[in-house]
Amino acid sequence: MDSYRIDDLARMADTTVRNVRAFQERGLLPPPRMKGRTGYYDDSHLARIRVIGNLQERGFTLASIGEMLSAWESGHNLADVLGVERVLTEPWSGEEPEYLSISEVVEIFMPGLVEEDFAGKSPEFFPMLARAEELGFIRWAGDRFEVPSPRLFRVGVELHAAGVSLTSIYDIAEDLRADCATIADRFVALAVKQADLEDPSQLAAREDLPEIARLIARLRPLGMEAIQGMLAQELHARIQAAFSDRIEMFLDLLPKEVPLTPKDPGSS
After folding, report:
1. 86, 108, 129, 146: which has the fewest C-beta neighbours closer than 10 Å?
2. Residue 140: helix, strand or coil by DSSP?
């Protein structure tokens, strides 16, 4: 099991060191394993903080969250509870973030821009940078940029290198994000219905927490495979239809009598 210092734990859980300490003081988070004067946290702490954060976003107070966690732990094996916590909160992507310097980001967004010309281009650069951060392509991390999903970032870089404008890339990314949110909602609704989780208040009394965790874990690869398979089919069908129509229109515009082979330049 991985070990994290408090600042690493806070960063991975997308919270602050102050919040981590507050959770500990309220009894929501078990104490770390001490080695000398340094505390080390593990994946169970990370899962717990993510659950707390998710519940806070849904409007639960820290007091009610504490009661819920206590009910779970008193009625179930802690391993079962943490199993559900992990499967609900751990990232679905196994990607590790990458990091870029400011100069590398400038080169990607404005290739060939020399440093002395940057001042004149900065009004154009910073709005593009802000939208990239808003869409989740990059985010500030001290004196450099973090790329949360290198795979997604590379798609944007490749499109830009192929001549697609950043505005167009951002627009389609925003639309795709909304489409993916709709798809995700459908899979979540399926999981909630299949696991009979319509009433979250009854979760603490459930005796089948391991089965619930396994069901949700199975939905991850199945959901991704279904999306990839259907997207491949739709791309094939729609690209074929779009380009075949345009080719037919192009052929219709050609002269009716066109030589099948090019004329030999040397012939008379």
Report:
1. 146
2. strand
C-beta of residue 46 within 8 angstroms of C-beta of residue 9:
yes
pTM of the predicted protein model: 0.58
Q: What is the pLDDT of residues 169-188, one digit of tens each?
A: 999 999 999 999 999 889 88
Largest interatomic CA distance in the chain: 98
Say how many domains are in the chain. Answer: 2
**Domain end (from 173, 194, 228):** 173
Mean pLDDT per 10-residue segment, the chain (268 residues): 84 92 91 90 88 80 80 62 66 80 83 60 76 91 89 93 92 94 87 75 68 82 89 91 77 65 57
Identify whether residues 80 and 213 lie together within a single domain.
yes
**Residue 149 domain flag:** yes
Is 131 part of any domain?
A: yes
Domain span holding position 31: 1-90+203-254
* DSSP 8-state symbol, 202: G
Chain Cα centroid distance, residue 38:
32
